[in-house]
Design a protein that fits this description.
Protein name: RDD family protein
Subcellular location: Membrane
Number of domains: 3
Strand order of the largest sheet: 2-1-3-4
Domain GYF: 4-50
Domain RDD: 74-201
Membrane topology: Multi-pass membrane protein
Helix content: 55-70%
Order of helices and strands: EEHEEHHHHHHEHHHEHHHH
Largest sheet: 4 strands, antiparallel
Number of strands: 6
Radius of gyration: 30 Å
């Protein structure tokens, strides 16, 4: 059934009854506003029309309070540095384990299979962390959590699917050539749909809480410490250029390389 209303002294319509209900619910029409349809003798206050009386008498339906986790969407930079922290911390344990095992780091770092697969153990760890705790060390320090849109934690299967997407589409399997491309795609996804590709596809969301200030201080301190430890562990790799390889480098790089190598001795 269609109805006419009076708006700004002029007749407007016709509107279907469900549109009139919507206007009542949103406050565009009040109980005293006149409406008319072909089945009515004349203009009648909307509150006296039986088909709309229930809508007017029913208390407004308000959405429930925001769940405790849904405080704010995190900035892109916060997500980026949280992941870089996780990778760096993981790198400390990875290279430390190889060093303690007296593995030839130069040979390992030159192995293309290792370059492509070195992050796989981390993503296995991340599957469990996201499933059980909804966060990782870097995310926890910066107040980030990965949750389903209803506020629940990801199941093991959801966490696995998400980790695979991050590994492939997020960091390009750790390959230097693919990483910046994947990073750009992730940034575009966050800007356009408000979620990363892996969260959007999986129906998840990364939400931000507001941790105490000491966590941010701890994040900076631990991040810098981890970077320095990893740099110390990677000295055999960083200063492993052969003389003929060094000769092919620009003069400024050779000077920088030699100076850094002398300082590391």
């Amino acid at each position: 059934m269609d109805f006419w209303i009076i708006r700004d002294g002029e007749k407007a319509g016709p509107f279907p009854d469900y549109e009139i209900r919507r206007k009542i619910e949103t406050g565009e029409l009040g109980p005293a506003d006149p409406v008319w349809s072909e089945s009515m003798a004349g203009w009648t206050p909307v509150g006296e029309v039986p088909v709309f009386r229930v809508t007017i008498e029913r208390p407004p339906v308000l959405p429930p309070p925001l769940p405790a986790h849904a405080v704010a969407a995190p900035p892109v930079w916060r997500r980026f540095w949280a992941r870089m922290f996780d990778f760096t911390l993981y790198g400390v344990f990875l290279w430390g384990f190889l060093t303690l095992g007296k593995v030839d780091l130069k040979s390992v770092a030159a192995n293309p299979w290792f370059i492509g697969l070195q992050l796989i153990p981390w993503f296995v760890i991340e599957i469990g962390l996201i499933h059980w705790f909804a966060t990782t060390p870097g995310k926890a320090l910066l107040g980030l959590k990965v949750l389903n849109r209803d506020g629940s934690k990801l199941s093991a299967v959801q966490s696995l699917r998400r980790a695979v997407l991050v590994c492939v589409a997020g960091v390009g399997l750790g390959l230097n050539l693919l990483f910046p491309i994947c990073l750009t795609i992730s940034w575009i996804s966050l800007r356009r749909v408000g979620a990363s590709l892996w969260d959007f596809v999986g129906g998840h969301e990364t939400v931000r809480t507001y941790p105490p200030a000491w966590r941010t201080v701890a994040f900076v301190f631990l991040f810098l410490t981890a970077m320095n430890v990893q740099g110390w562990l990677l000295k055999p790799v960083a200063f492993s250029l052969k003389p003929e390889e060094l000769e092919q480098m620009p003069a400024w790089f050779r000077d920088f390389y030699e100076k850094a190598r002398q300082e590391s001795l």
